[in-house]
Amino acid sequence: MLKIEDLSAGYENGFVVRNVRLKLEPGEFVAVLGPNGSGKSTLIRAALGLLRNARGAVLLGGRETAAMGRREVAREIAYVPQLPDPVFDFSAGEIVLMGRYARQGRLDAVTAGDAEAVREAMKATDTLAFKDRKLSRLSGGERQRVFIARALSQDTPVLLLDEPSLHLDINYQAEIYGLLKALQIREKKSILVAEHNINLAAAHSDRLLFLKDGAIAAEGTPRETVTAANIRAVFGADVDIRANTRTGVPEISLAAAESRR
Ligand code: ADP
Ligand code: MG
Questions:
Q1: What does pTM read for this prediction?
Q2: For ligand 1, which residues put their CB under 6 angstroms from it?
Q3: Which domains, and CATH codes, for the chain?
């Protein structure tokens, strides 16, 4: 579905992501983990073909995203940015409708299908209640859910989400990840998230990719990669690891420094 080959990417002052390869199969859920500044957002932007300073290849169904138009990419990949672009003060419903633009002609009126897609996406993200409210009047978590709704209304086979849990309370973290999981399983969507929450990522992903200083430091299933040694190497943190009693997936906890002596 999405294939990243030997990708190095960055900004005017040089590459910040180096020699990354990653394959996202249809119906696969992959999380990119790593400390602040390790290059997670850069990797996602490069995958969308948004960075001019990039070397290597990003293939979408065998075609290079860099050579595709923005609307063409937008029919295949929906993107939820980490810090949504500053926009004019649109209402929540208007933002979600923007997800439909890639499917419309420039001057097409909003169809019943568009309105239905918007409604479904807002229902799924619990944002219908403030459909007509301006973005500036919403909390960070509410805004985050509106941008996730926009991505859902886009109705693409691939979803890239940059820290979707960032502004969310634990109940919405569970809800949004549950929703993504359902889209993966029911609709075979391919999902790539950048996530700083190791436990959330491990609980929901088929594979994890750990980035450190822009390079892959570990890659594999949560069971293979969520180890105390990897967490120490990538994050410089000492953690305890236990298997979740229900699922067996490894979970980290920060033991109090005192109790670890
Ligand atoms: P993460 O998402 O893992 O926190 P980023 O991809 O945002 O990491 O950042 C990786 C590195 O690239 C950091 O050193 C950051 O300062 C730098 N960086 C991010 N965005 C830009 C930009 N627009 N211009 C120049 N450097 C940037
Ligand atoms: Mg980031």
A1: 0.93
A2: 11, 16, 34, 36-42
A3: 2-76+157-259 (3.40.50.300), 83-155 (no CATH)
